[in-house]
Amino acid sequence: MNQKISVIIPAYNSAATIEACLTSILNQTQPPEEIIVVDDGSTDGTVAKITHLQQELPKIRLFKESHQGPGASRNFASAKAVGDILVFVDSDMEFDQNFLKELTRPIMKSRAIGTWSGNEWVKNWSNVWARCWNYNANRPTRRMIGANPGQKPVFRAVLKSEFMRIKGFDLIGYTDDWTLGNKLGVMPKTSYAKFYHHNPATLAAVFSHARWVGKRPYKFGAFGTLLTVFRSNFLFSLLIGLYKSLRYLTPGFVVFKLVYDFGITWGALENLCFGFSY
What we know:
Blueprint: E1 5-11, H1 18-26, E2 34-40, H2 46-54, E3 60-65, H3 70-80, E4 85-88, E5 93-95, H4 99-108, E6 114-117, E7 120-122, H5 128-136, E8 157-159, H6 160-165, H7 179-184, E9 189-191, E10 195-197, H8 203-214, H9 222-231, H10 234-247, H11 253-274
Parallel strand pairs: 1-2, 1-4, 2-3, 6-9, 7-10
Antiparallel strand pairs: 4-8, 5-10, 6-8
């Protein structure tokens, strides 16, 4: 059964990566019916980049919303989509030309309602901060998830009918893309669709992303938040930074770790004191 594919991309201050992302999606062996980009209140040149591409690439549809986070952008775009299959990707990703074909194959053959892929690699590995991002997660190579990724409850593609039935993602912040599994009551089928991710490439980007991660909901509520703040204190950060800088022969990891954990602490304290916000 040949079903139409709608690719959905939330974009927030993505001027540095959005053009490569869109180009690699358009150069697929199984092209999508449309690409819906939702600008989530960007303050850089993201919208200008997308508007320029639209002049020659009519498959790109652009919507502009106030800053509400990627989950809200995905839900908004899904309601606008004409495709039978929704594919959720990020604006800092690029894709192997067979990505959509491999990702949607089980759905096209009626073997699954949704799929995911752990075949994800760092695109900007030559950048020291991008490498440090992986080292911080104990990933010593360009792989984003590890050699044996297992299965995660993250739907990279899903039937639109099923997505709309459960009313989309819960808007809980950093881990909102994990909410579909519980709501659907099934796990996505594993595919081996290959794609690439741009890790944060500047210390400012490291801090910003870590702050976003730090705002996530914690298992034990306020106690879990305080535990995160404790584990991210300056002394622990310095010790771990020194250890991993030696382990990975990357002196800059000390600086990375201090900046990253400061971002985590900032985000966690924001959440604790003022509640979750985007």
